[in-house]
Amino acid sequence: MAITAEMVKNLRERTGAGMMECKTALTESNGDVEDAIEYLRKRGLAQAAKRAGRVASEGIVGIKVSDDRTRGVLAEVNCETDFVARNDGFKALVDEITNTVFTSDASHEQLVAADGPIGSRITAEIAKVGENMAVPRTARLAADYVGSYSHMGGKIGVLVQLDGAKGDATQHDAFKSFVNELAMHVAAAAPAYTHRSEVPADAVEKEKEIYRAQMADSGKPANVVEKIIEGKLGAFYEQVCLVDQPTIRDPKVKVSQALEAVSKAVGAPVSVKGFARFKVGEANQA
Question: Where in the sequence is the domain holding 208, given as residue range(s)?
Answer without folding.
Answer: 200-240
